[in-house]
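Please produce the structure of this protein holding zinc ion.
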Amino acid sequence: MTPLRVALVAEDYYPQLGGVPEHVHHLARELEALGHHATIVTSHMRMNGTVDPPNVRRVGTSLVIYANGGVARITVGWRLTARLEALFRKERFDIVHVHGGLSPTLGLVAPRAAWRAGIPVVATFHTWFPDSLGYRVLRAPFQRMLDRHAATIAVSSAAREAMARYFTAPWEIIPNGVDTTFFRPALAQGNGGRGAGRGPNLLWLGRIEPRNDLGTVLAAMPRILERHPGARLTVVGDGPWRSRMERVARPLGSTVHFAGYANGDRPAYYCDAHVYMCPTRRASFGVTLLEAMACGTPLVVTDLPAFRDVAAQSQAVFAPPGDAAAWGEAGCRAACVAARGAAGGRRVPAGDRMMGMDLLFGPSVERGPKRRRIYLTFDDGPNERATDAILGTLAIERVPAAFFMVGDHVRRFPELARRVARAGHTVGNHTYNHVKLHFAGPKTIRTQLKKTHDTIESTIGVAPRAFRAPHGYRSPFLISIIVDMSYTVFGWTFGVFDTARPGVEEIRRRVRTRLRPGAIVLLHDGDGYDPAGDRMQTAHALPGIIQDARAGGYDFGDLSELLNGGARGLSR
Ligand SMILES: [Zn+2]
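Below is the modeled complex.
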């Protein structure tokens, strides 16, 4: 396969939050994981201390305008088309992929610049809108533009239908996804968060603007408080209506808390919430719904076609837009569902559906026997700095661990892999290129596993018998290949998001608070996508993690004890 150089053009990108920035960010990561080069092209905006990763280019200045019931951005700048054309030529892109096709400014300017540079254009349409005067007036020239696109993608049938009212194109629907390594229920388990005595904790998360309708949830609060006096509402996000909404919330006193802007810690907010409330009146998709579902958080959402598409299979409670009384009722109902969950019942199936499905995907070992023993596991190495440091700590502390290695990293750092094996640790197979298996075909999966198997065996002299899927994404094709190769598939009891580098003490604290008998602990000594990735925070946290576990009366098991269903903890 020839690696492609892809420009992802987006009017909306971080630090602006929303469905489009999320989509673009993850698409870039997925393209990189497939071996392509993705560059994000957006405009200059207030960064609030955020620093761009190296693959972001900014051209022109972003202005915030009020449109479509919310806040929109347009890019202004001198000779924008010429500057974009120069950038596209300089970076020798093979494809320009515009997010927010046919919308001002970049959705119109970037295709023109790309065509001048002779580069094909793909456009993804993300929005649903009731009616567009602009499209009615400019129908003919816009249709001509659209005809020149190499592909036209909509993120949902709602987004496609909005566009199809004005334009004809061979629409393809490709729904948004969610990163289930980042958004996982794991953080909520253990103490604190949802388990804590009072509640329910309600969450509202988004940009504070009219279309996201925080007002309806605030108006519903008195009714919810009547039934659940311990209820608290956390409002996460910022926006033009924040001060107005803070005034509206004032009579509710300390039951409403405005937490401000958040990006990296969003999973923790979802996980701490008993109920996620999404009263948005207008949506083409529901990325935050997926995020909440991935965290196992029950939902109350507006009854919109786009939200039905995403959440109908979960235990979501649907409520009509803007009806505070209905939202009060729905909030109470969801809180009761959540309370039953907290009392030891099943988690909301939406989360399970996305994470598990053992029947289809075959069993995986997610914990050991329930005695005071835990299993440390490190994924995505070997890595020159972190693996080395971790081996040092494990040797001093005489603690066994398992390392799920990426085949390509073993090829780069064979001596490190040998040192791991010589120290007596378990070496596992974690695919060759850290491929997410849920969309991979049987051939890819077999190749990824076999190539890694052979690389590890020829490097350390022992054939691996433990397999862990990148991000835990399994596939129905995996089971027969696993059986053929006589592997045991491992999941984990909890992870602590150490890949987000939350700080040494925070990593240590998260492990300490989640410890429980038999736990398989997911940590990272490498970066699945970057052989030089920095995992030193995890390495530095390890001595404290070991110390805390011992203080809690735990010892450390070797994961190979659990091979071939050695534990009763097979599957869930
Ligand atoms: Zn991994």
